[in-house]
UniProtKB/TrEMBL annotation:
<keyword id="KW-0663">Pyridoxal phosphate</keyword>
<dbReference type="Pfam" id="PF00155">
    <property type="entry name" value="Aminotran_1_2"/>
</dbReference>
<dbReference type="InterPro" id="IPR051326">
    <property type="entry name" value="Kynurenine-oxoglutarate_AT"/>
</dbReference>
<dbReference type="InterPro" id="IPR015421">
    <property type="entry name" value="PyrdxlP-dep_Trfase_major"/>
</dbReference>
<feature type="domain" description="Aminotransferase class I/classII large">
    <location>
        <begin position="25"/>
        <end position="378"/>
    </location>
</feature>
<keyword id="KW-0808">Transferase</keyword>
<protein>
    <submittedName>
        <fullName>Pyridoxal phosphate-dependent aminotransferase</fullName>
    </submittedName>
</protein>
<dbReference type="GO" id="GO:0008483">
    <property type="term" value="F:transaminase activity"/>
</dbReference>
<dbReference type="InterPro" id="IPR015424">
    <property type="entry name" value="PyrdxlP-dep_Trfase"/>
</dbReference>
<dbReference type="InterPro" id="IPR015422">
    <property type="entry name" value="PyrdxlP-dep_Trfase_small"/>
</dbReference>
<dbReference type="InterPro" id="IPR004839">
    <property type="entry name" value="Aminotransferase_I/II_large"/>
</dbReference>
<keyword id="KW-0032">Aminotransferase</keyword>
Length: 383
């Protein structure tokens, strides 16, 4: 995490967003929307600030948000949570993941199984906690894991199987067979399942299925999500962890010494968002699906091969038909050549497997239609 000269390496997102700012290129790198979310949610935050909701909230989160999280899980997934015991509010999904892994990892022999490529904080937190990362590859173009490779990765040393579904950076939504195998392996080896479901409502075909709803999963699963993507408020950092009270308490024990609490005025606003009608939740997936199609068509027209995602903000494209051999070099040059920023998939892979992702590039579709159209025409012109 720190270079030999003592400097802190920026994350790939910070590096590529700075490159976009410096060059004036369209930023299809870091995944954040360029439009605000629902007016009711923004107004609820303003009202909370005006009404003096500006001091430390309770350690688990404000009761209204705990209840709204429980209502949301019952409405969409039929999960019945005790809001006072099975729910914990965190500083984004990022803190929920960090606190969960720090709580569950006992020592250097513990192994954490993740699908690779993975969201960058996973490997960093496993390193900070001093455990071992074991990865199962997701391969172009459908990015579903091979079940025998998954079986080979999970052993009695496995403390946690960490599943991000829908998946960043690939846009994959895992099949029912994959979810069932994760649960079976966790039971067989007495591992905990930690899920990252921040894209739960950004799915294009089938409704999202949380692993916690699979038979046998509930007692050993911590589910993590956040309001950032669903309500287009990635800077608010209101996330949550849900699951059986004993596991949630272990996360709270760590969380209280990471941030203690955060975002008092944003908590009631996210509660307002979680109570919006079904039509809102349907509309965000539909609108992003149209953007995915626009971006995918633009990338194809510009000469890339494209893997069509089933969820998330992202589309993965192969730049090999354009002559690329190194996605990192390709992405560092793209803003100068085409005025567009994207992220090399190698940034999400372990050194041993980077070669498999060497020519793949991640593009974010969560931008205004006119921005995506302009990016597509720039990429086509540079082709
Ligand atoms: N997990 C994944 C897979 C993500 O893509 C992101 C955000 N980009 C996060 C976690 C972080 O979520 P939050 O902003 O709520 O901390
Ligand atoms: N989750 C966002 C992405 O994958 C960015 C998060 C970040 O900047 N750390 O692009």
């Amino acid at each position: 995490l720190v270079g030999s000269d003592g400097s802190v390496y920026p994350t790939i997102f910070a590096e590529m967003s700075a490159l976009a700012a410096r060059t004036g290129a369209i930023n299809l790198g870091q995944g954040f929307p360029d439009e605000d979310g629902p007016a009711e949610v923004l107004e609820a935050a303003r009202a909370a600030i005006a009404n003096g909701v500006n001091q430390y909230p309770p350690g688990r989160g404000i009761p209204d948000l705990l209840e709204a999280i429980a209502e949301h899980q019952e409405r969409f997934y039929g999960v019945l949570l005790d809001p006072g015991r099975d729910v914990l509010v965190t500083a984004g999904a990022t803190e929920g993941l960090a606190a969960a892994l720090l709580a569950l990892i006992d020592g250097p022999d513990d192994e954490i199984v993740v699908f690779e490529p993975y969201y960058d904080s996973y490997a960093a937190v496993v390193a900070l906690a001093g455990a071992r990362l074991v990865t199962v590859p997701l391969r172009w173009p459908d990015f579903q894991p091979d079940l025998s490779e998954l079986r080979g990765a999970v052993t009695d040393r496995t403390r946690v199987i960490l599943v991000n579904d829908p998946h960043n950076p690939t846009g994959a939504v895992f099949t029912a067979e994959v979810r069932a195998e994760v649960v079976r392996l966790a039971e067989q080896h007495d591992a905990v399942i930690v899920t990252d479901e921040v894209y739960e409502h950004l799915v294009f075909d089938e409704p999202h299925v949380p692993i916690s709803t699979m038979p046998g999963a509930w007692d050993r699963t911590l589910s993590i999500s956040s309001g950032g993507k669903t309500f287009s408020a990635t800077g608010w950092k209101i996330g949550w962890v849900t699951g059986p009270a004993d596991l949630v308490d272990a996360v709270l024990a760590v969380k209280q010494f990471l941030t203690y609490v955060n975002g008092s005025a944003f908590q009631p606003a996210i509660a307002t968002g979680l109570r919006l009608p079904d039509a809102f939740f349907r509309s965000i997936g539909q609108s992003l699906k149209a953007k995915r199609d626009l971006l995918g068509a633009g990338l194809l027209a510009a000469g890339f091969d494209v893997s069509t995602p089933a969820g998330s903000y992202f589309t993965v494209a192969d730049a090999r038909p354009l002559g690329a051999t190194d996605a990192g070099a390709f992405c560092r040059e793209l803003p100068h050549r085409a005025g567009v920023v994207a992220i090399p998939m190698t940034a999400f892979a372990t050194p041993a497997r980077r070669a498999e992702y060497a020519t793949l590039v991640r593009f974010a579709a969560c931008k205004r239609v006119e921005v995506l159209e302009e990016a597509a025409s720039r990429l086509a012109a540079a082709h």
